[in-house]
User: What shape does this take?
Amino acid sequence: MSLYTLTPKPGYERYTIQVGWNPNGTYFATVVDFAWDPVTDPDNQPDTVRIGMADAIHDSTEVLLAIEAYADIPADLAAALRADRAAHRQSVPPADGAPQLRTCAD
Assistant: This one.
């Protein structure tokens, strides 16, 4: 698994922005305001982005596009995510039950 915490853009400092690769077979991204309290601040509800949690995302560009409005994205991040995916193999048992390794490519 890989996890990168990104620097928020001006105006989005309240958010924690993370992106990475989960060896279960998906890229993921989150934009969350962990400090928001709906009781004390009900009129200032934050944006929330969570992709790659319930659905499989196989293109690193898709998660980066989902968070680009909120964070400064380093130029080499897409390549780093693809390298993380290549480095973390998945163990997938074949139909006969014998162990087998596979990797997923973009």
